[in-house]
Amino acid sequence: MDKSEKTEVVLLACGSFNPITNMHLRLFELAKDYLNGTGKYRVIKGIISPVGDAYKKKGLIPAHHRIIMAELATKSSNWVEVDTWESLQKEWTETVKVLRHHQEKLEAGSCDHKQNSPVPERPGRKRKWVEQRQDSSQKKSLDPKAKGVPQVKLLCGADFLESFGVPNLWKSEDITRIVADYGLICVTRDGSDAQRFIYESDVLWRHQSNIHLVNEWINNDISSTKIRRALRRGQSIRYLVPDLVQEYIEKHDLYSSESEDRNVGVVLAPLQRNAAQAKS
Asked: Which residue ranges are recorded for the region named Disordered (predicted)?
């Protein structure tokens, strides 16, 4: 397939990144190789979007630290970047709204590009025809499926996918919008059966063509939870996180027994909001 005929994709990863690990970065590389290898897509950018403090997750350190660590981790990458929009929201923001935000940014950028491009006025044609053509192109650019506008797809691990089954953690309509309107790139891991999970979910099964499962053949069980546990016990985390991230953690003494008690007893924001809406 010609390069111009391939669908351009922006990979968006949402999560705590508490802290960001080498495995988080590895997900982007695996997903990029997979999508590019299909011959249908061309990955042009990756975005890391740390969740805001209002998420209220146990042990979640302040967002500004997590953002800085993510920026340090992606310093050497020429295609993965950090976006602060989600983390700066005063209230917890649903993942589907974060996806919509980034898709709309891409559409607006495409619209601006078309507006700035001169439209040649053909001899004998009225100016009104040219203006109508410009208006038409602007309307088309607002369509998320419009040709030439990159598509945002959600990048995640198998544990993220399986969280769809946790009662009140996700609204069913949000799950539908994520898989139907955007799509999911899920990197599997040992001990999970993502394919079975999709089979057992009517919503996921209905939109399975828009869910891409990527196998990680090189076993890697690094997780932020295990990183924090090692730090609390005074153990080395070298080679588990980027060196710059390790240095930042040590410099600011970020993870301890005290930090792990942050938000203890506080109901996770999505559980609190969705449970309240279910009762109303």
From this structure: 107-145
Report which secondary-structure segment, H or E, holds 97: helix 95-116
Measured distance CA(84)–CA(276) in Å, rounded: 28
Asked if 182 contacts 154 with a C-beta cutoff of 8 angstroms, the reply is: yes
CA 70, chain centre distance (Å) = 13
Amino acid identity, position 123: P
Give 73-83 pLDDT, tens digit per residue: 999 999 999 99
DSSP state string for 149-203: SPEEEEEEEHHHHHGGGSTTTS-HHHHHHIIIII-EEEE--TT--HHHHHHT-HH
Q: Which is nearest to 231 in space by CA: 78, 80, 2, 69?
A: 69
In this structure, the number of other CB atoms found within 10 A of the CB of residue 29 comes to 15
The Cα–Cα gap between 190 and 222 comes to 12
Digit-coded pLDDT (tens) for 157-192: 999 999 999 999 999 999 999 999 999 999 997 777
CA–CA separation, 51 vs 252, rounded Å?
20
